[in-house]
Amino acid sequence: MTEHVRQKILTALATRLTGLTTTGANVFRSRVYPLDTGQVPGLLIYAESETVEPGSGRKSERQLTIKIEGYAVGPAIDDILDQIALEVEIAIAAEPTLSGLCKDLLLLTTQIEKSGEPNQPMGLITLNFLAWYQAANGAPDQAL
Fold first, then answer.
1. pLDDT lower than 50: segments of the chain
2. Boundaries of domain holding 42
3. Which of 26, 54, 133, 139 is an S-S bond match for 42, by CB 3.0 to 4.6 Å?
């Protein structure tokens, strides 16, 4: 079964971010289910939107907005969230084309939220990235 280039980008990104020091193997390509206690600190990776513009020849220029959510719990929540962001940004900067699947992957914004009980604070850092890629018209499974 072939995959849309968008799916390939998300899969490659999840692979790239698996094994980071803080989040380890707690990397998931979904935002449907919340993370369990044993999965925090952890990352959720998903596409938010995509714009498509006709390109030259038989290709389209695409801009994919990707959300990477980092979750943490504990008393040093600010430090943990900042560490998650640091590790994610460095990992992506080391290979911003994801082995040629996209032309570039750029950080657009970062948002930080905190909530929870006083004895169990929870934090969320959302890193919004823009993946710029090209695909063949009529063959969105082929990155150009």
1. none
2. 1-48+74-118
3. 26
